[in-house]
Amino acid sequence: MANEEDDPIIQEIDVFLARSLLEKLYLFQYPIRPASMTYDDVTHLSAKIKPKQQKVELEMAIDTLNPNYCRSKGEQIALNVDGTCTDETSTYSSKLMDKQTFCSSQAASSVSRYAAAVYKKGELHLTPLHGILQLRPSFTYLDKADAKHREREAANEGGDSSQDEAEDDVKQITVRFSRPETEQARQRRVQSYEFLQKRQAEEHWVHLHYYGLKDSRSEHERQYLFSQGHGLAENTELIKSPSEYLMMLMPPSVEEENDKPVAPSNVLSMAQLRTLPLADQIKILMKNVKVMPFANLMSLLGSGTDSTAVLRCIQQVAMLVQGNWVVKSDVLYPKDTSSPHSGVPAEVLCRGRDFVMWKFTQDRWVVRKEVAAVTKLCPEDVKDFLEHMSVARINKGWEFMLPYDEDFVKKHPDIVQRQHMLWMGIQAKLEKVYNLLKEHLTPKKQEAQSAHPLLVSGEQRVNMAKAKVKQNYGQLEKEFQKQKAEIKSNDTSAKLDVSNIRIKEEPLSDEEPMETSAYEGMNNGIVNGLHAEEDSTDSLNSHLPGGCIDRVAQELKAFVSSTFKKQFVLTLSELKRLFNLHLASLPPGHTLFSGISDKMLQDMVLDTGCKQILVPFPPQTAASPDELKVYALWEAGDTYDQHRQVLLEIFSKNYRVRRNVIQNQLSQECGEELNKQEVDRVLKDCCVSYGGMWYLKGTVQS
């Protein structure tokens, strides 16, 4: 109250809002001139405007009689610009620089808070501004002078040349046809600086008439700065409470998005990055960095980030290569995109880049020519793949850019194992697409690999197994408590002790283990979660409770049963590949990770009602032992069981058969004439066609 008494109100002024010049009133800010010269004294020769761009050009006369004007300098500038001849195209027709051009630029992106005010007879009239333009001198005449100078030099050089050199020579030209422009290319072109400049240049100038300060037309237009009516109907926007009026007059200063500097689309500050969800942060980081150790990724995400959540998200956008994370190909090359070099679709690019990544899982070195020969892609695309994850070494090839991350591999064996199984699935696809030879599949020995040997001692294997048991301790303890409760309910006296859990140390059997590991040293004994011991049941009994064994068998039986109901015929090699993919989709610590051997998998196949088909492969076959073992579902419980059994009997005697032989045999054995649709259904379930002959699934030798 004391402050209000010290600052009394001495006058109240009515405020009116004038609308006559709404969206037509601009404020021009001229350069500073001497106080002795006002803009009313300056003669405006011409004015023009581009309304859409709010761009203005004013041409003003220069007082050449002013004592401060240097006449010799003005004559020299006119001579440099126009030369000695004068015509209609001359900039300075008087052979003297007697005018100057001013070009405008926007002083503020938003002028909604600015208005022009006129005070008259105790009333304040406000007119909102539509734009604020700053006028600066234009020096385009200097460009014209430079062009004239270059023309004169070219003319002099041409005059000194001989007559023979002046004659037109026959020159060879190259005709190129541009390929159709894609939608993505068109969007990039429309957003380019060159295109925007071209569009701005295409807008036509609108010529204006300039009226001086004391002109009658200016006086007439100046009257529109006053509100035409003082009634309430004309000024309803100003009938506000004091606080609302102040809010309208001076809204709170909020930093607009348009005022912020526009960064390139691929640049994002760390402050902006950390406002995004964790999955988006990881995707953006991996897309830009492409290869990163897990420790570096955690440091970029900031303190307090849950490493488990990061591990869950990173597997969605990246693959593990030599203990480091490499961004997935489909993240870099989304669907419906193409190569900027060759126009190859994204699907082919992803396949080629996956081959490069897979090669780096086998070896620290990759040869560019070998990649190009296998993928059949252009050298520029192959170079892009290699530059994403490796560095070129003279006379050696391309080396993976980061060292092998042993710390991550030791701390997260489950992640390593799961990623390895994913790579096995990718390898199987690459083998089919590129028809890879054994020389492509066998990793080359390099001196650089001596830093992490491939062979693992028995003691190290036991330590790895013990570490895995400790990691799964929580799950094992739950199983123990559950079984203990069951034993008590059955009044049995048997007791179990978790401390008795041990990893059975046995020598490997002669049975061939699953070929599922390129890093056999890292996974000796436990290959993709599948134990290679012959007596798999005994191995499981030695370190798992009885209830857990039953769960493993149930899970395995469910997988085998559902797989054969979809496929009907599978080789052991294909079944193991599907099992690896199934394991990769399971969460860490699942019961199936306890270890499944070849023998246990084959026994379960036979237990689910399948039979082994002894296909008579040709003697010169190059198939592996797992590819020679063919299993088929004998009874699926549908009306085609008998037909499939007859078909399987045919292939137990023949490696390949013609369709007419199969159809005649089916009709003869089943006692009825089968139509084409029924025969197609049976063949589709069990066979594939190749070169006019029919083979059981997985037995075709290309």
Output the keywords.
702 residues, alpha+beta, three-stranded mixed beta sheet, 22 strands
Describe, in plain words, how this protein is organized in 3D:
This protein is an alpha+beta fold. Among the domains are: 12-84 and 91-149 and 194-230, no CATH class; 270-434, no CATH class; 547-696, no CATH class. Helix content is 43%, strand content 14%. It is built from 29 helices and 22 strands. The strands form seven sheets. It has a six-stranded mixed sheet, with no helix packed on it. A hairpin with a 2-residue loop joins strand 16 (526-527) and strand 17 (530-531). 21% of the residues are buried.
Broad shape: elongated
Tell me the fraction of residues in β-strands, as a range.
5-15%
For the sheet with most strands, the description reads:
6 strands, mixed
The portion of residues assigned to helices is 40-55%
Low-confidence segments, given as residue ranges, are 161-167, 255-265, 445-455, 491-543
The helix/strand class is alpha+beta
GO biological process, one term: tRNA transcription by RNA polymerase III
Biased composition (Basic and acidic residues): 146-155
Domain DNA-directed RNA polymerase III subunit RPC5 C-terminal: 444-702
Protein name: RPC5 polymerase
Give a topology summary.
Elements: H1 2-6, E1 14-17, E2 26-29, E3 44-50, E4 55-61, H2 71-82, E5 99-106, E6 115-120, E7 123-128, E8 131-137, H3 140-160, H4 163-166, H5 183-190, H6 193-202, E9 206-208, H7 216-222, H8 242-249, H9 270-273, H10 278-289, E10 291-292, H11 294-301, H12 307-317, E11 318-321, E12 324-327, H13 329-332, H14 346-362, E13 365-366, H15 368-375, H16 379-389, E14 390-393, E15 397-400, H17 406-411, H18 413-434, H19 438-441, H20 458-471, H21 473-489, E16 526-527, E17 530-531, H22 536-541, H23 546-567, E18 569-571, H24 572-584, H25 598-607, E19 610-613, H26 625-628, E20 630-633, H27 641-651, H28 659-670, H29 676-686, E21 687-690, E22 693-696
Parallel strand pairs: 1-7, 2-8
Antiparallel strand pairs: 3-4, 3-9, 4-5, 5-8, 6-7, 10-12, 11-12, 13-15, 14-15, 16-17, 18-20, 19-20, 21-22
Helix pairs in contact: 2-3, 10-12, 14-16, 14-18, 18-24, 23-25, 27-28, 27-29
Domain DNA-directed RNA polymerase III subunit RPC5 C-terminal: 444-702
GO cellular component, one term: RNA polymerase III complex
Pfam families: RPC5 (PF04801), RPC5_C (PF19725)
